[in-house]
Structures are given as structure tokens and as C-alpha cells.
Amino acid sequence: MSKLLQDVVGELSLLPGVGKRTALRLAMHILRMEPEAVAEMTRSIDRFRGQIKYCARCNNLSDEEVCPICADQERDRATVCVVEQVADVLSIENTHQYKGLYHVLGGVISPMQGIAPSDLKIDLLCDRIAQGGIKEVILAISTSVEGETTLFYLMSRLRHYSGLKITSIARGIGFGDELEYVDELTITHALLNRREIE
Amino acid sequence: MSKLLQDVVGELSLLPGVGKRTALRLAMHILRMEPEAVAEMTRSIDRFRGQIKYCARCNNLSDEEVCPICADQERDRATVCVVEQVADVLSIENTHQYKGLYHVLGGVISPMQGIAPSDLKIDLLCDRIAQGGIKEVILAISTSVEGETTLFYLMSRLRHYSGLKITSIARGIGFGDELEYVDELTITHALLNRREIE
Q: What are the counts of helices (DSSP H) followed by strands (DSSP E) for chain A?
């Protein structure tokens, strides 16, 4: 087997969800791409890894010290939505429904994986709240065991700020979900929190 | 959204089977990798795209003019196994059962996709046979409609070489396949070509 092919397959296999077979398929695709397109791709990966920063305020990925969302004076600066990861910011932004700011924790508390509260950007969140101006913190954390642990820990920290409204995103049956396949805890929650149809 | 992140997600989405969501997941993984590991990965991609050659004899991927298999004097140079693509060579090599040489066609004849016999390395195969020394050609082409077309075309070209043995890999039920899920054509073929148990 060609050393060059062996190398590229080995390197691509380092990516999550990419086994030897997929890596080989990717390599063969790369071979069919224009050399300039491949060079542009590898340059963008190198630039991304070398130059990307974390926003000093919200910990979102950013090209500058402060991310475009935090810098945007048009947004509602009194509301902060706390999420686990960068991908969650993008998911919420894609709805075009939320005009407040964000705070990216960078994960959830997980004793199993050795992630303690101090490994997350919780102090940074408290600093932001202590500076004043924030009226509501929306907790948009996943409902896993680790997520719930993180939620409880955040509550214990945030309830010290008087006048701060703390909310959590609604839990229930997702649109398009079939009841048959929804877990019992979600159904129980959805039943208990039923709403009168107006 | 960060321009650097946007760029890398856009570039990674060019890869087959990688959508925006997967590209984002890959980007976040790249961010967790050591900068040197990322640089090594992109360097190996660039090297692969820039320096890889096709073996002048068998059309397999190669670092040199002639691939290691064709250059290996220990291998049986009288037997050539004809395959569609580079990945097939690796699959057969992984069995450690085959000691002959290969010939990579670079695809199958497909009028639908505009792939004519002249787009494949069939003339190169005929040249190799014409040079003498090859006693058997094993056709290891897939059983798709395009594969069968390619097989018939190859037969029409190869039968002109007197004394050349032309064989095809055995068709049948794969090990571990459940009969229930095997298509009828394969079962019919497997029944017609049944073997007496010795």
C-alpha cells in the first residue's frame, strides 16, 4: 500500500466517526477534487485551528476578542441563554427567534469524565451577572443526568443574585415526534405541564 | 457565526457524507486536537493530493512510477486480478491469500454516468497481456448492471489472446449472510453452482 495513501488514511481516521474504510473513501474523494480545492480546505482547517479564539465574554467561538453576538448592540443585552456548547448557539440562532446574548459553558458537569464545575465557564457567567444589566438567564441545558446535575449546580450559584429571573427551556414532545417512540419521562413531564388550548 | 468556523464547516461539507452538522462536529473535534496533530493531518492531505501517482503498470495508487506490488519480484507475475478501484486491491490484500498482481480499471462502464471503455485502463491491461508472461486474468468486478457490462466488454477484448485463462471470482452466499436476506439472483446462482461436500 502506498505510503502517502497509508498516511492520509491514518490521519483521517483520527476524526470522530471515521474508520479506515471511510478514511479511504474520503482519500479517494480528495484525489478527485481539484488540487486548489484541496489546498483551500487544508488551509481553512489550519487557519481555524491556529487563529480561532473564545469570546472573552460568552466563551463562544470567535475570530476576535469579543464575538459578533456579544458585540452586536442591537441584541437584547438583558437576556442571556446558557448552553453547553458552540453547536447549541448555532441551533438556536438558526431559529431566528432569539435576540438575547449567550453563554457557552463548554460542557456539562460529569464526575465520570472528570469534568468539575471549575472546568466550565460558570465563574465567567457569574462575573457577567455581577456586572449588572442582566435581567434573565435562560438555562438551555440538555436533560441528561449530567445536564440535570449542571442545572442544579447553576441554580445553586445563580439564586444568590436578587432580582435575577432564571428560566429553563420548555420540555415536552417535539414537533414531528411520534408518541409511541417518546420516552416515559418526557411523556410524564408533557402531561403534567399540559396547557389549555386557547 | 465566526468566519473561521463558517469557512472550515463549508470546506469540510465538501467531503462525501459530511453535512453541515457533521462538519461542525468535526470542526469541534479539530479544536480539541493538538495544533501539531492538526498540522500533521493537513500536511498529509496536501502531500497525498500533490504527490500521489498512478502505477504505470497496474494503475494502482503509488508513491513511485511503479507500485510496490508490481515491483515485488516475489509475487506471481503470471496472474493478474482485475478490479474496479484501489479500495478493492486493499480488500483483497487484507485476505493475505492472493500472491499475484493487480490491474485497477478505475471504474466500470456506465453509459448513464458517461463512462466509456476508453475512460478505463483497459488498453493498458491489453498491453500488459500482449507483452507476454501473463497466464491467468481473474476478473473481480462487482455484480451490478455496470459491472456485468464491463465484464462482457472485457471478455470480448480478452478472448483474442490465445492460451490466456480468464476466470471470475466465485459468486454465492457470503459467510455470515442470512439466506432470508439474500437476493434471489444470488440464491439461484448459489444453488446452480452447488458443490458436493467432500
A: 8, 6
Among A174, A157, A168, smallest CA distance to A121 is for A157
Q: Are B124 and B176 in contact (CB under 8 A)?
A: no
CA dist., res. B153 & res. A108, Å (int): 60
Q: What pLDDT is attached to residue B193?
A: 82
The answer to whether B49 touches A38, Cβ cutoff 8 Å, is yes
- Name the nearest CA neighbour of B162 among B191, B130, B189: B130
**H-state helical runs in A131-175:** 145-158
Question: Crossing angle, helix B35-51 and helix A20-32, to 10 degrees?
Answer: 50
Distance CA A47, CA B3 (A): 11
Closest CA to A92 of A114, A69, A116, A115: A69
For residue A102, with 0-12 CB atoms within 10 Å meaning exposed, 13-18 middle and 19 or more buried, which class applies?
Answer: buried
Phi, psi of B29 (to 5 degrees): -70, -45
Q: What are φ and ψ of residue B163, in 5° steps?
A: 85, -5
Which of A11, A28, A44 faces B41 most closely, judged by CB atoms?
Answer: A11
A87/B28 touch (CB, cutoff 8 Å), yes or no: yes
Condensed to tens digits (0 to 9), the pLDDT of residues A112-171 reads: 999 999 999 999 999 999 999 999 999 999 888 999 999 999 999 999 998 999 998 888
Chain B residues touching residue A28 (CB < 8 angstroms):
85-87
Measured distance CA(B15)–CA(B43) in Å, rounded: 17
Assembly ipTM: 0.81
Query: C-alpha grid cell for residue B176?
Result: 455470515
CA distance B139 to A21: 23
Q: How many residues does chain B have?
A: 198
Please give the Cα distance from A29 to A21 (Å, whole number): 13
Calpha distance B198→B195 (Å, rounded): 9
- Residue A51 sits at the chain B interface (C-beta within 8 Å): yes
φ/ψ (deg, to 5) at B62 = -155, 150
- The reply to whether A113 touches chain B by the CB within 8 Å rule is no
Q: Are the beta carbons of A5 and B37 separated by less than 8 Å?
A: no
With vertex at residue B1, the alpha carbon angle to CA A130 and CA B39, rounded to the nearest 5 degrees, is 105
The DSSP bridge partners found for residue A115 are A110
For residue A145, give every residue at least 6 positions away whose Cβ sits within 8 Å of its Cβ, in sequence order, or none.
none
